[in-house]
Amino acid sequence: MTQTPPGLLRRALADARSLRVPPTVPYLPERVFPWGGPALSLAGAGGGVDLDRFLRLSLAAPDGSTTGRLRPVASAGALHPVRAHLLVGPGCTLPPGRYAYDPRTHRAHPRGPAPADAPPGAVVVLTVTAARTVAHYGHRAWPLLLLDAGHAAAALALAAAPHGARVCLDADGAQLSAAAGLPGPAEWSERWPGAEPELPILAMWLSTAHQPVPATGPSAAWAALPHATAPTPQPDAASAPSAELAHTRQVLEHLTAAPTHPAPTWHPARRRPAPLTDDTLRTRRSAPTSDLAHPPAPDPLARILTTAEEARPDGPAWAAAIGGEAPALLTTAGVLAFGDARPTLARWAAGQRWIGTAGAVLVAHGCPADASPALIRGSHLAAGYAAGVAQAHATALGLRSRPIGSWQQADLGAALADAPGHDWIVHGLALAGPADPAPSAPPPPSGKEERP
């Protein structure tokens, strides 16, 4: 990969946070799943890692879905740009090998063999296809793609119980491409012309027991293999990308080439927050904006704020804006500021007025204007991950929720009289309590006259 042009990522971050409005373009429909070959069931016999259950509870579209838009995992614009490549070693319900997962059919498509020294369990490499998100959000797309990948990683981690998973948000993109059998972004159009590029964002490792992470990482053995089978070319993906799409791919390529440590870090996913169950994962959905005005009770709000704060301790800080008789901006440590911040948050979130009256609004904040590439990537992935865990916890507690991904001029630090440019809102999650029960109807008349 070429060296990052000076100022590229800082300008991209400032532009995504600016008031510049993306151009209006026609809706780009979802492309056909490109990975061909046999479509295998994930419910094979034997194996401690049940990939069928794992993916059905996380990324799979509901049975009977015709559009694939209404999935349990939140996604900006319901566009679902995240794809999963399964690197299956011994001890799983699929034979060892590389696979591409189709969430619409809940099937795995073989893409090549496994290395002889593949670690037990399965490595999941999450990639994104940027075209549809860019068509909808323009220059604001790349942060949303990172947030979407974080939400998908949270869904996978929650579904991995009881075995648990290790989550890696800082793996080098080139190594992830090699592990998944994909060419690098610069090689894609030459090696696989007519196929839409997939950019690797993060990885996870599921194992049957509490196995130590290999010294070189769970994906290293896979990266030594040659490229796997190619996707099916699609005529509408063969044309040259727009300037905005090419820029988005360039930004993501350079962000994922910036690991935060000499070696990738594979953090164990935290346990599911109680009382979250498999049924919760099957039924979670983002609520319509019209259903988000009822304030949540203080106790569940505090529990969900704690969940967001603790889901990724290496990520941004979290606060909750509430209204009512004692409006304030709350943290797990106490009051950050007094007053109702929700109208300001509504203005910062692309002018979505419903946020000004939402029951509560959780915000992830940090990622300064001069953040390093590693911090930009990690902040957005960790914020999406924490919001995904918090949203599932909200569902388990009977609350309604909706992520808020796009933020403009949301310099929270400056609004709180701190130095400008150092504390920006990265992500949000609106919460609402259950609606007040409707008044019970009077009993029907008995037909007999009642007397005193």
The amount of helix comes to: 25-40%
Tell me the domain tally: 2
| CATH-defined topology of the largest domain | NADH Oxidase
How many DSSP-defined strands? 13
CATH architecture of the largest domain: 3-Layer(aba) Sandwich
Number of helices: 13
Strand fraction: 15-25%
What sort of overall outline do the alpha carbons produce when their principal axes are compared?
globular
Summarize the model shown.
The chain is of the alpha+beta class and 452 residues long.
Description of the molecule:
With 452 residues, the protein is of the alpha+beta class. It has two domains: 261 residues, NADH Oxidase (3-Layer(aba) Sandwich); 147 residues, 3-Layer(aba) Sandwich (NADH Oxidase), CATH 3.40.109. Strands 3-2-1-4-6-5-7 form a seven-stranded antiparallel sheet. Strands 10-9-8-11-13-12 form a six-stranded antiparallel sheet, covered by helices on one side. A hairpin with a 5-residue loop joins strand 8 and strand 9. Helix 4 packs across helix 12. The chain is globular and about 65 Å long.
List keywords for this structure.
NADH Oxidase, alpha+beta, seven-stranded antiparallel β-sheet, six-stranded antiparallel β-sheet, globular, disordered C terminus, about 450 residues
What is the element layout, followed by pairings?
Elements: H1 8-16, H2 51-56, E1 82-88, E2 97-102, E3 107-112, E4 122-128, H3 131-137, H4 141-159, E5 165-168, H5 173-179, H6 185-191, E6 199-206, H7 220-223, H8 243-255, E7 267-268, H9 278-283, H10 298-311, E8 317-322, E9 328-331, E10 334-338, H11 342-348, E11 360-366, H12 373-396, E12 400-404, H13 412-415, E13 424-432
Helix pairs in contact: 3-4, 4-12, 10-12
